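Re: your question from the hallway

Yes, I did run it. Sequences:
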Amino acid sequence: MIVDILSWISIGIGAAFILVGGLGLVRMPDVFTRLHAASVADTAGAGFILLGFMFQAGLSLNALKLVLIFVFLVFTAPTASHALAHAALLDGIRPWTRKPKDPAP
Amino acid sequence: MMALAAVAALVATVFLALIRAYLGPTVYDRVVAVNAIGTMTVLLIAAVGFLMGRPEFLDIALVYALINFIGTIAVLRYIKRRRARDAEEAESAEGAEGAP
Amino acid sequence: MRHALSLFVGLYGLWLALSGHYTPFLLAIGAACTAFAVAVALRMDVVDHEGHPIHLGYRIPLYWSWLTIQILLSALTVTRIVLSPRLRIDPVLETLPSSQKSDLGKVIYANSITLTPGTLSTNVTADGIEVHALTRRGMDELKEGGMDRRVTAVEGEE
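Structure:
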């Protein structure tokens, strides 16, 4: 019972983080800032959702597979992000910056 | 119940990422969006597996997590090569114009 | 040789996790496949301390638990930024010095930076790491060098 509640809470938090990532993907002004938003969904979102499913799976092979999925995601996500940002910079895309007349709040 | 909520959030995020992939404006924005869709798909496969009571789906999710990464890197390499080739062609075209 | 052994153990563990059927025949087949994969890796000369950093030992799980907390904290920060009606972002791109001696340490540091939402490593050179941060504050926090020191500690003496 407690495990179920923990699982629901965890999946709920994960779903919220994932939605935030998607929203950020649409709202942010350039590639690099969008990558920041996507990494919220990739790390925190994916982590909480998989943790929630782990609670449901209990101590079994399925839980181990969920851990493996998380490990693969966590090892590949930064590499892909880094390659993307590096390629974009090499291609001459300048990062968006706040204009001086519009000071940061 | 909660797995359904997770599926809903994942599908909504896939649509948001699709909007970004459609709007662009650069090819890198689209790759970011496609990469995000890939991650969401991995989670979606796992969630659907749990919803339908078929944990074998986890194996597919595992493989998809790896393919997604390799796909992103492959697309980036392709773009890089094409950019390099375009630059080379532009240079040689300029050289031909410059010659009398 | 130590690394070949650890590679074998890791691959066989993965095979066991994915298989789910444990009869002596299948276990033997799995061991044979794993041994073949390790032999191929040895022939390709990719089995070394970089591909399989077992010398980091117990320090790396400790570092991961610290990193998890950092990821959660910065994920919350980025969440607040994304949800605020006026996007309160102030992106900066700067090169930070890194104190790691080995390539492995630099890779761990760069990947940790990228893994934390709000900061993103865009280039790794011998002298430092080029970082793109979502806010000036995130960049300042990174500049204080807490993560840099921790990664150097994880790297240890070569």
